[in-house]
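It would be a great kindness if you could assist me with a short task in structural biology. The matter concerns a single protein, recorded as an amino acid sequence and a row of backbone structure tokens. Kindly check, if you would, that the fold set down in the tokens agrees with what the sequence suggests. Thank you for your consideration; the sequence and its tokens are set out here:
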Amino acid sequence: MPTTTHLSVPRATSPAALERLQPVGPSHDDVRRYSRARRNVLPRADHVTAVTGGWAHDVVLRSDAPVEVALWCPGDRPYPGLEATAARVTARAMRAHRISERVLARIQPEATAPALLSVVRLPRCEPARVVTGSALLVLVADGIEYAGNLGSLVRTADACAADALVLTRATARVTHPKVFAASRGTVLTTPVLTYATVAEAQAGLADAGFTTYVADPAGAMPYRSAGLGAGRTAVVVGSEGEGVSDEWGAGLTRVSIPMRGRADSLNVAASAAVLLFEARAALDEGDLG
């Protein structure tokens, strides 16, 4: 964690406030923290991600996500739209600073000035507060290895108005910047729950009254016949390589998506979308959603 507590931006949303930001170098605690967040090497307990660019920060501003650190690199050319966004982000930030183009090149090599970078805290969600009560639709991602795939699953869960994304045996970290990018920022608003074991996830969903369906290309039951969305529904999808763990197999319905072409399966996000939209349609028709 950074040791500095200095707030170097006035609480104003005018672009003129950016001129009063104090410059910092590459060894500053907050610059180093951003760099570590971008490389996804901060401790998991920190639960923050690195955000860069105008559209990404517009998403942050539309959410309630706390901005821990903001770094502004003005460059030599005006960019009024980004400057306005930067002013609002730095006003929200706990700490904000100006950096040079040289520092920018060091910590975000592909970026060019003007540039806005930040460290943003992701929401923490407790299973007991999410999968109980009015929750009706949950996506479970088992053994997901790649951050891009995880981000696509978050976006898919959001698109289907799923109540949560549950992670089991996850290798990819939800804090990876690629998750933010692939989810188009919906990782800030989609509840993501992580269970220590498959058994705990199964028990939690069962106790909350969910019927769990496992996506399996070799499954005996086509998904249109499986009853997805007849009540509280959890859909389990697995990694691209190994699929769903056998731990999810006992006593659960395994469903398949019939392939009409030459491919033998869909990628994980596409499979999740097919199954979730099927369940969402049934929930809406049954007035459960």
